[in-house]
Amino acid sequence: MRTKLAQVPIPSIGLQSARIAATLLTMNAYKNAGSISIYLSMPSGEAVTNDIVKDALTQHKAVFVPFIDNAVSRNGGSLIKAMKMDMVSLASIDDFERTEENRDRWGIPSVAPESVQGRAKVLRVGASTAHDSSGGIAITAEFERSAEATLDVVVMPGMAFDRNCGRLGHGKGYYDTFLEDYRDSKVGASEKAHFGLALCEQVLHEDETVPTNQDDWALDALVVGDGSIIERKPNIF
After folding, report:
1. What are the strands, taking DSSP E only, across the chain?
2. What is the CATH number of domain 2-231?
3. pTM summary value
4. Nearest-CA neighbor of 90 among 128, 20, 38?
5. pLDDT tens across 170-218, in order?
6. Residue 70 near residue 139, CB atoms below 8 Å
7. What does each C-alpha distance from 119 to 96, 127, 222 come to in angstroms?
8. Which of 9, 115, 121, 152 has the least CB density, counted as fewest CB within 10 Å?
């Protein structure tokens, strides 16, 4: 699948992304949402979310985007360090456009690490920055639960999707872990809608399914690059 996606022409990604955005923006779950978390796009191989992000900000929705850091969690008396994902707020379209200047190791636009402490976060508070021995910036955080934000819609990327709204991620488990932490920390968190965005090339044939286990979160709906919607339950969006 990675090889297949790497070969999707950029003009095709642009056209499919425009169709996806046009469809998502008409969905009641999106129109009624006061807050949304949405991924920022890799340089190739997945639907581009720029138009959706800008629309949400223009509509004065609270917009949250992924930020992955070296987080320190407390387990009993022990501290455990691991790469974890939280969602942090965007303030404006200008703020969103500045993410192009801070691409991460995968080439994905990201907020500047030094700006994270001043942003609203979905999961944790008290993040602090420090310079590590190599001169880089390390972000650490205790896993306190934030009262700053709740989410109405979560828009997720993936590498492949099936027609039962199964999602295959990129192997890091960031979204599954984030959603589990969010569910455990928010009253009513299970009520949010989970959407996936898929290029046509990412959707498997009718007789194929993505591999899943009990830790994987199913989507409520999948918006496809031809403008169609695949729903886990009919007519809910």
Report:
1. 35-38, 62-75, 78-90, 128-131, 137-140, 153-156, 160-161, 167-168, 193-198, 221-224, 229-231
2. 3.40.50.10420
3. 0.83
4. 38
5. 878 888 888 888 887 765 455 578 999 999 999 999 999 988 877 778 8
6. yes
7. 13, 10, 29
8. 9
